[in-house]
Amino acid sequence: MAASLHQDGPAAADAAGPAPLLAVAGLSKHFPGVVALDAVDFDLRPGEVHVVFGENGAGKSTLIQTLAGVHRPTAGTIRCRGRAVEIDSVHHARQLGISAVFQEFSLVPQLTVEENLFLGAEIVAWGLLDKRALRRRAQEILDRLGFPLLPQQRVQYLSRAEQQMVEIAKAFRAEPAVLILDEPTASLTEREAERLFALIEQEKRNGVGIVYISHRMDENRRIGDRVTVLRDGRRVATLAMDEADDERLLQLMTGRVITQIFPQIAFAPARRLLEIERLATADGAVAEVSLELGAGEIVGLAGLVGCGKSEVGRACFGATAAAAGRIRFDGEDVTGATPGAMLDRGLFYLPPDRREEGLVMVRSVRENVALPALSRPPLSRFGVIDRGAERRRVRDLADRLNLQPRAIERDVQYFSGGNQQKVMLAKGLTRDIKLFIFDEPTVGVDVGTRVAIYAFIRDLCQSGAGILLISSDLPEILHLTNRTYVMYRGRIQAHLAGAEITQDRVLAHFFERGAA
């Protein structure tokens, strides 16, 4: 089987079509104790979108970071327009016409949008920074991309979606020959994603080659021309996108057949856990929100990025202050309570940005998982941490969530995004939790990890926990919730239940006020 799959590779694919813009042969990259890439062959042609597909940890990020000059390969060759090159830095890659937009942002928060766009490539006149030209050029790029940003805005005050726009805009400050996009729509609204897809089509017509990474199957099928599947650092197959149905891609990616992505869930709504009445936040993101949620059910909170849904979840956890309204949890008024107090009461919040808010990246899996329960038995007694109990508990959770690898003493920063997400989930299992608030729980994770997370959410619900699922991923809302609230500009636009939760009904309330 493996031999026949490898026959689908570049040798067969290169028999027809234009000469590649980029071609790598036998590319390997070793890190201490890890072979991230193992003799990978890959090529990119002018005017095509070449999708790189695989599980978290398969080697996708290492491949594109090597092409973009972040890493130097351990072995193998890279040819750019037929000429062998050794790409020794991101700056060198840009000189070769290779621009990359990585999943993890590389912005300087204290600088403005325009300063970030031209960082390292500032426009100068007579030895001085030409601020007027800088702003004019930045505005031209933003207008071309259709991004509603002001050049003088400071990045630290932008939403995650707006910061994603800045990252994409950076790649367009020059005319790239090769454009690398790693999960570029993860934080974008549907409308912004549509604009990005139109730009991709435009760049294809201009002969730009695009390397595209996304775990969203519909995106890959919509814009991709070819797909290369990686597994465990090796290339498993390269084939035309129209030959790659979902079942085949998933089997190539995981080495097993995945018959169903979304699980069947037996909802059994019981006592009321959460009641929100006319909630408003000081920052204006939430204007007036009322909702309720019971044990044994999954309630969705849907809407475009920036509609205020994340702020509702943060306010329930005490991470965002409520300016008006009331929040009741398990019969108690908890308005104004701190995150620590809410955790003690049995409410756990999983934030959307695992690197900035969810995890301590430079600490181990053991330390991260145990952190919420470190001061409580059985992990500590009389103020003294029981390291043996801590290790046993974290190992059990690592096994339950299939953490790969099971290296609980390794720093979290060295794990793939999907496994970092599993570490965040494990944190919620160290305490007795009645209500879980999952805010974009599958951002940047592969399909296999999605299946595991969805099964985890099902199990929590069927064990009697209440779940508030905050998501911009419409299929998650449609397939996982028994009731859903749709938000628009800080307010509840609609409340749908059961068979009412359809794509058309949910989308009808995403953009403007309409009939429920």
CATH fourth-tier homologous superfamily of the largest domain: P-loop containing nucleotide triphosphate hydrolases
How many domains is the backbone divided into? 3
Number of strands: 24
Q: Predict the CATH topology of the largest domain.
A: Rossmann fold
Structural class by SSE content: alpha/beta
User: Briefly, what CATH class of the largest domain?
Assistant: Alpha Beta
Arrangement of strands in the largest sheet: 6-9-10-3-11-12
Query: What spatial form do the alpha-carbon principal axes imply?
Result: globular
Low-confidence stretches: 1-15
Q: What is the share of helical residues?
A: 25-40%
Describe the structure.
This protein is α/β, with parallel strands linked by helices and 516 residues long. It folds into three domains: 2-254, 3-Layer(aba) Sandwich (Rossmann fold), CATH 3.40.50; 260-346 and 432-516, 3-Layer(aba) Sandwich (Rossmann fold); 354-431, no CATH class. It is built from 19 helices and 24 strands. The strands form six sheets. It has a six-stranded mixed beta sheet with strand order 6-9-10-3-11-12, sandwiched between helices. A hairpin with a 2-residue loop joins strand 11 and strand 12 (234-240).
